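Supplementary Note 2. Why include the ligand at all?

Several targets in our set were suspected to adopt different conformations when bound, so apo predictions alone were not considered sufficient. For every target with a known small-molecule partner we therefore ran a joint prediction. The input for iron/sulfur cluster is given below.
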Amino acid sequence: MFCYQCSQTAKGTGCTVMGRCGKKDTVARLQDNLIFVMKGISAYNYHANELGRKDESVDEFLTKGLYSTLTNVNFDPEDLISLGLKAGETNLKVMKMLKEAHIDNFGEPVPVDVKVGAQLGPGILVTGHDLKALEELLKQCEGTGVKVYTHSEMLPAHGYPELNKYESLAGQLGGSYTDQRKIFSDYNVSILVTTNCIMPPKEDYIDRLFTMDLVKVPEATVIKDYNFKPLINKAIEIGPLKQEELTTISTGYGLSTILSLAPKIKELVEEDKIKRFFLVGGCDTPNPKMRYYRDFVQNLPEDTIILTLACGKYRFNDLDLGDIEGIPRLLDLGQCNDAIVAIDLALALCDLFDCELNDLPLTIVLSWMEQKAAAILWTLLYLGKKDMLIGPILPAWLNNDILNVLINNYNLSLISDSEADIKRIMG
Ligand code: SF4
Ligand code: SF3
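The joint prediction is reproduced in C-alpha cell form.
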C-alpha cells in the first residue's frame, strides 16, 4: 500500500505497511481501485456533459465514492467491494448516456470502409474520443480544401452518418495512441488532440500540435471555444501531403446493424456454424505482452465471431478474418465507451437464445491500460460476467485478498499463452 494523504503519514513520507490511522493494505488498495474507476467514469461523464447530458445520480455517486476514501471514514473491505460494483453500475449508466448523446447528435453508426493513408492536399490529424470537437472541426474545414484524418480512438467517427457526411473527413492515418510520436512526425500536418491519450510530444511536431479542453502539454497551442482557425491555418501554411497508396479498414458496427443480422446469427449458432463469440478489446499499451491479442485473434477457430472496440483493436484489425455466410468475423463496435454496445448486444443475444449472460457462448478478453478500462471491468463485474480474461498484466493495486474475491466470485484470470487459452475456452 502507499498512502500519504494525511498528516499522520508514516515518517512524514507515506504509510506503506499499515496506516497510522489503522487503515490496512487491502482497504487502501480498494480505495485506490475506487478512485481509479471513478476517474474512468468521470472521463465518460465529462463527454456526456459536453453534449448536454447529465444524470444527478452519477454526480452523487462520484461525491460519495470520493468521500469514502477520506481519512478515517471507511475501513470496511466488503463495503469497498460493494462500492466498486456500484461504480461499475454507475459507469454503465454513464456509457449509456454518452452513447445516446452520440446517436442523437450524429446518428447510429453504420459499417464503413475507411481509407487509410495520405491523400493529396493539406491535412489535419485528429485523435482522442471527442466527437463533438470533430464535428465542429469538420464544419469549419468545409470549403477550405483541408482534409481531416482520424487517428486511434477517432476512427469510429467515420461510422456516424452525421459526421461521415462531411467531405473534409478524408480517412485514417496510423493506429493506436502508441504510434503517435512516429505518425505525428511522419505526416507533416497540423494535429489536434481532443482527449487522452497524449504522449510527451517530440520537438519536430510541437509547433503543429494543438490540444483542447483538459488536454495540455507545455508549448502546444490550446484551442479555445471550438475556434479551430489556428489549426486550419496551420494546415494550409504547412502545405499538401503527397498521395499514398491507400488501404481500407472497417468500423461502424452499431447495435441496430448487428441486431438486423440476429435471425441469421441464430440460425448459424443453431447449425453450429458459429461456435462462440469473443469480445476482444480495450486499451492498447506498448507492453510487448500485447502481442498476445494479435496471436489470440489470429488463432481463433474460423467458426467464431470477434467483436472489438477501443484502441487495443489496432493489434489485429488489419487482419482479414473473412465471414461466416455473410456475417463478418471481425466487427468493430467503436471506441472504449462503446462497451455499452457490446453489453446491449450480449443482453439481446440472451433474449434471442433465452439464456442468462453467463450461459451465452461469449468470452470477454479485456486489454487494459488506463482507468476507463478499469471502469469497464467493474461494469462487467457488476453485471455478473464470469470467466473474463484480462491483460497484459494484472492491476498493480490488487493484492491476493482482492484477487481471491475476483477469482472466487467471477473466475477472472490473466491472459497466458494464446493457444492454451483458446484451447481451454473452446473445450
Ligand atoms: Fe497513513 Fe491513514 Fe493518513 Fe493514509 S490516511 S496517510 S494510511 S494515516
Ligand atoms: Fe485508448 Fe488511451 Fe484506453 Fe479509449 S486512447 S482506449 S488507451
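The mean pLDDT is 98. The chain has 15 helices and 16 strands. Comparable summaries for the other entries are listed in the accompanying table.
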